[in-house]
Amino acid sequence: MMRSLLLCLAVLSLIPTDACQPDGKARSPMTKSVFGRLPNGREVHEFTLTNRFGLSTQILNYGATVRSLLVPDRNGKLEDVVLGYDSLSEYVDGTAYFGAIVGRYGNRIGKGQFQLDGKQYRLTINDGENHLHGGKTGFNKALWDATVLSDSAEPSLQLQYVSPDGEEGYPGTVTLKVIYTLTENNELRIAYEGVTDRPTVLNPTHHSYFNLSGSFTHPILGHLLMIEADSFTPADKGLIPTGQMMNVTDTPMDFRTPTAIGARIDDSFEQLVLGKGYDHNWILRGGAGRVRKAAELYEPASGRLMTVFTDQPGLQFYSGNFLDGTAKGKNGIAYGHRTGLCLETQAFPDSPNKPQFPSVTLRPGEVYRQTAIYQFSTR
Ligand code: BGC
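Above: inputs. Below: predicted complex with beta-D-glucopyranose.
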């Protein structure tokens, strides 16, 4: 005990004081381990990032996946707030996109087709008659190259994926870097940077399913949600936007003040019926290109509050409607209906076919950039 305490004191100049645990052991801001092997024999690694307040996350280089995120409740109790699996094979076989970076196009492209510079492109159809989250083998199924950028008080991991020309039908070789950082402000910050060698479309997003209660056996219906949006993009039965923008006033889509997710989710409002709950894109206030607050999610029993910031024009709020208990997650817990929710920072769905929506075209010489921040505190 004495020895480990002395050891801890010795490394205080390198790591923050609070990184010493009660047992005197220093908590390392970043560790790396082998998570499993892909069917082709390639090794998948898991990186554990920890800040001095105990916030920690396990990130896989498979799918650039956030596998766990331990966050304190109002009494300082650390609990996992994201859905995920225990083993690599479940990620390989899974269809829920737990914690992954999805792309090239996060969300749907109608009929899996679009035109760019007068040329027609056909993408993989993997969701009814549409294309979803980059196709059958999207970025969530790729093995990314990992580089530890900082092993300090703000541990930072870079993941890079080179998506070949023609992958899932998309033109151009795209190189996407995603940097995950655990900040001193108890934030998980995600910075994206992408380039291409031919004109293409790019709209990646992060797909964690959050349940701030610390228990994945309970639905997220009691969480209070606030979204900084006066309107949303209504969609058809395949969840492809109609192209209109609808004001949220006097509808169950109005989250301008914190409202329980379950309060109106089963209303007969047509958009909720079509979405089988919430599965829509909100048009964020304040214009794109500037990082601003997009949403707040609060879980009253634990006191956990998550504030989402983004520079993107839209936010997809998906209330986990397709979770049905068949996916067994960490510790063998079956993820029932609406036991997790996604808040995906992104451009609007089907933008390549909607000239009135903000553009998602990326050309050679341009750099795609996105910042998303999930900040944790308590009330
Ligand atoms: C979509 C849902 C889809 C889910 C797949 C969400 O981003 O909005 O419609 O079922 O991803 O996990």
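The pocket of beta-D-glucopyranose is lined by residues 96-97, 239, 279, 316, 318, 322, 342, 344 (CB under 6 Å).
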